[in-house]
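Sequence in, structure out. Go.
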Amino acid sequence: MMAMNNLLRTNATKLWTRHSSLVPILSSHVPSPSYHNNAQPATTTLRSMATGTRGARGHGWLKKYRAGLGGRHLQGRWHFRDVDELNAVNDEVFAMNESLNKDDNIPTEAYLDLSVAGDAPRRVVIELASAALPKTTENFRLLCEEKGEEVKYESTLAYRIEKTVGMCFGDVVTNDGTGGRCHPKSGTSHSPFSFEDEGFLVSHTGPGIVSMMSPGAHRNDSRFLITTADSAQLDGRFVGFGRVKEGMDVINDIATGVFTKRGRPTVEIKVVGCGVL
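Output:
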């Protein structure tokens, strides 16, 4: 028993001696250089993530909030845009119609006659940016003018209403927003049902902007919307090509007076007539 105790005491002494000899070596050890040239100590990195100038989420919103610029929902690329300047640009885009050759007889206005639940139709007149966006406006005009068996806007329904964004029209295939196709003259052999984005010249700065509703980039078909409010989130995504010239009260009455279930109108809103002026 005594021999066992002596052996344990000897082993413990050896371990303590080895540990004591390693302490000065570990304390004087210099970390190897990082693979990243701009690497910082972990404590500095954690501190900058918590209180740095870029904010806790990495977008600077916390610093702006402390400066009195509002919370995250009031910040971003849409919040500080100059609506008056964008409206002036929109006016210049539509003013380009004056440069059209009158001999070409290119229409610059179209109309939609809307009927709610079978009531008497009310007319909405739309001014088109025919000079700035000839292909997009031509597709819209052809679908308004078509009266035969081809795809057309006549007898189609408004399939969705977002009261703070706009009303959706133009599904000439299924009438529920899941389908759509451009006029045959607007398509190509490679893309017979849609056409490319012509340009994001018109900004969605307020009610009455008429814009294509494309499911993706360069996939414009027949679906379009009429805005009921400033919709900055649509800029650069949907191609605006017109604005309501007369009948905005019709759009507002439908948007505010028709009950919807998850955006779907509970009554039939039909385009009973359409064409160009």
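Check: The chain has six helices and ten strands. The longest strand covers residues 109-116.
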